[in-house]
Amino acid sequence: MTDYLIPILPIQQFKNGFTTCEHLKSDRITLVQLEDELLGVHRVSSRTTHNIVTPPLCRSPSPAIPPPKKAWEAFYPEGSINPSAELPGGFGFYLSGPSSFAQQLEEGANEVLVSYRMMLSDDWEWVRGGKLPGFFGGIGPFAYNCTGGRQEDRCQCFNLRPMWRPKGVGELYTYLPLVESNSEILKKVPPQSIQDPNYGFSVGRGAFNWVKAVGNWIAVACRIKLNAIGCSDGEVQLWVDGEPVITVHGLLLRQSNQSIIKGMHFQTFFGGHTQEWASPKDQKAWFADVTGVVL
User: Fold this and answer.
1) What domains can be seen in the chain, in order of their start residue?
2) Polysaccharide lyase domain: which residues (predicted)?
3) Cis link prior to 191 (omega < 30° from 0)?
C-alpha cells in the first residue's frame, strides 16, 4: 500500500477489511461497489435520499489521491435541519459493511477503523453546526437511536460522530455510557470539551477545522477500541486528512461483552433540533471511498 493513501487508512497494521476506493489495493482488503446492498446499509431515513452521483470537480485536485468517480450525494434544502424534522435535510442510515466484515463485528471485533472521503459544496455556509458520519454500537437493538438526547439505556449503546461548528470548527460529538469516569476523561480533551446535560458531549472542539473540505475532497478516519469488561481502557481516535486530531484513552464504552461495534452511523444534517441550526440555502455534500478494517 502506497503512502499517499494514508489519509484513507492511517493505520497500516490491520487484519482485513473492505473499501469502495479503487486506489486502495491490498490482499487484505476487499474492493466493493458503492451500493447499499453490498455495504449492509439498513434503517435508512425514509424522507431523505443518498443518490449515487458523479461528484463535481473539486477546487484543488490532490496530486496524490485521484478524486472518486462515484459518491453519495447529501442534499440540505434551505431551512432544513435533521432527517426527522418537518423539512428534512442531509441523510441518515446505518452501515454494517459487507457480510464478511459485518460477521466479524457481530462476533465481537474489539478494535475497528472506518473512514471515508467527503467534499462540501463550493459556496458552503456553516451556520451553527451539523453532524457527519461516524461509529455506532451497543447491545442488539439498543445500539440504534443512541442519539437525539436519549437518556434511557445509555449504558447499552455508544455513538461517535464528527461535527462542524461555526466557521468550520471541528469536534467529535459523543454519546457514551453515562458514568462519571467518562465525563471526567472527556472534559480534559483539549482545546475545549463541553457536556450537554440533555444531549451528547462535544469533545475536542477546535482541535481541527473543516474549511479545507469546502470544494475539496478530504479524508475522515475514526478508530474505536472497546474496553475490557470491568476496566476503563477504551480508546477513540480521529484523523482528518491523515493528521491525528483527537485521541482519547481511558473510556468505558460498554459494561457487557454483548455490547459490540455495529458499524457506521452514516448520518449528516444541519443541527441540532431547532430552526436556528437550519441550512440558510440549498447546499450539497458528497461522500465516497467508504472503508472499514478490523485491527
Assistant:
1) 39-294 (2.60.120.200)
2) 69-290
3) yes
* Distance between CA atoms of residues 232 and 228, nearest Å: 7
Pick the closest to residue 117 from 207, 8, 214 (CA basis). 8
SS3 175: strand
Rg (the chain; Cα; Å): 18
* 141 phi, psi to nearest 5 deg: -65, -20
What are the C-alpha distances in Å from 227 to residues 108, 111, 146, 173?
Answer: 12, 10, 19, 19
150: alpha, beta or left? (left if phi > 0; alpha if psi -120 to 50): beta
115-164 confidence digits (pLDDT tens): 999 999 999 999 999 999 999 999 999 999 898 766 677 789 999 999 99
Give percent helix, percent strand, percent coil of the chain, each to the nearest 5: 10, 35, 50
Claim: this prediction has a pTM higher than 0.85: yes
